[in-house]
Write a structure and sequence with these properties.
The protein is of the alpha+beta class. It has helices spanning 2-25, 95-120, 124-157, 164-193, 197-222, and strands at 46-54, 62-64, 70-75, 82-83, 88-92, 225-227, 232-237, 244-246, 249-252, 257-259, 262-265, 270-278, 292-297, 303-311, 316-317, 332-341, 353-359. It is built from five helices and 17 strands.
Length: 360
């Protein structure tokens, strides 16, 4: 009985093995590719790697950096927003600079008030005081002169009635009174003449210097607000409220580099593709009027014809588009710019890498 069971189990194992071998011998058909790899659409063409950017008359996207450093206080726009030239985009903390500007403004106002005071001289009340001083000096002189006359008359009648010392004192008192009267009159003329022209000029220069300092401080205060240099679209904002932004940009914790605080581009309806043609292929590049090009979007079967715009006439070191900070320059490339239209069926964004074939 046991032998029969063992035989049955062995037969089942053999049959199962044969069935498994037969099933495994059938090949599973491969899955179709998700997309067709980019291929040359021209009989003879130049391949170039390209990057999508917003349309600019010259250069690339507008990278905005603050002209001074500070903590980000407020972000006034959002990514993808249309902005107008001069529109505020971002504000830095300006509390210290604002206080300094206000102080200089107050000093300039004080200098202007002092200048107006100098130009308004003489003050009537001051002149009245000087007139009273002249009148008092005249009265003192009259009293001294009368005393002197009486003393001299008594001395002439009887020298023993008045001492020589008393006579000398009366003479000196009259001379002092005469001098005091001259001083009072000169003081009156000086006050009546008003402020000295050199004092006015010095105060004018002081006022002008403080006004210039205030204007300079106010201009620096305006730099704490980052404004759009032209109409466009906010492509990216690389900072948040509370971060520190400097003229070198905003620190990126992922790349450990400095990024533009805000990147501004043109309308998304008009995009450019910047291609980098290897220097050894530059001699094969057709003339501008004969250039044809086609762009392939990576990871798709989308192929879009391009319109030649211009050549940036400067062969520059090749960059690694994925990381421009850690690269090794082996060759040099010529930038060639093409134009593409924004299609409703394809999503294309600035910064996207594409494959470009250039033919004639």
């Amino acid at each position: 009985m046991k032998t029969k069971i063992v035989v049955i189990i062995a037969v089942i194992g053999i049959v199962g093995g044969i069935a498994s071998a037969i099933v495994s011998s059938f090949a599973t058909p491969p899955l179709p590719p998700a997309f067709t790899p980019a291929e040359n659409p021209y009989p003879s063409a130049i391949y170039a790697e390209g990057i999508v950017e917003s349309a600019q008359a010259s250069g690339e996207n507008i990278n905005l950096y603050p002209e001074i450093g500070g903590t980000v206080k407020e972000i006034l726009v959002s990514e993808g927003e249309q902005v107008k030239a001069g529109q505020p985009l971002l504000r830095l903390d300006e509390s210290i600079q604002k206080a300094a500007a206000e102080q200089l403004g107050s000093q300039a106002q004080a200098a202007e008030a002092m200048l107006e005071e100098l130009k308004a001289e003489p003050r009537k009340e001051t002149l009245d005081v000087n007139v009273a001083q002249v009148t008092s000096a005249e009265a003192s002189l009259k009293t001294a002169q009368d005393t002197l006359q009486k003393t001299e008359a008594a001395y002439e009648i009887d020298p023993r009635s008045v001492s020589k010392a008393a006579l000398d004192d009366a003479i000196n008192a009259a001379a002092v009174a005469e001098t005091n009267l001259q001083v009072a009159k000169r003081q009156y003329e000086l006050t009546k003449a008003g402020a000295w022209i050199y004092d006015i000029r010095n105060q004018e220069r002081t006022k002008h210097a403080l006004e210039e300092a205030y204007a300079s401080s106010s201009a620096l205060l305006a730099k704490y607000t980052l404004r759009a240099p032209r109409d466009g679209v906010v492509l990216s904002i690389n900072t948040i409220v509370g971060n520190y932004a400097s003229p070198q940009g905003s620190y990126d914790a992922y790349t450990q580099g400095q990024d533009p605080v805000i990147t501004l581009g043109s309308s998304p309806e008009s995009l450019h593709v910047r291609c980098y043609v290897d220097e050894i292929l530059v001699p094969r590049l057709p003339e501008g009027s004969k250039i044809k090009a086609q762009m392939s979007i990576r990871g798709s079967n989308v192929k879009i014809p391009l319109e030649f715009v211009r050549v940036q006439p400067f062969v520059s070191p090749k960059i690694e588009l994925s990381d421009q900070r850690q690269e090794r320059v082996d060759v040099r490339v010529l930038p060639v710019i093409f134009k593409i239209g924004k299609t409703a069926t394809v999503n294309i964004y600035p910064g996207e890498l594409v494959d470009v074939y250039i033919g004639d």
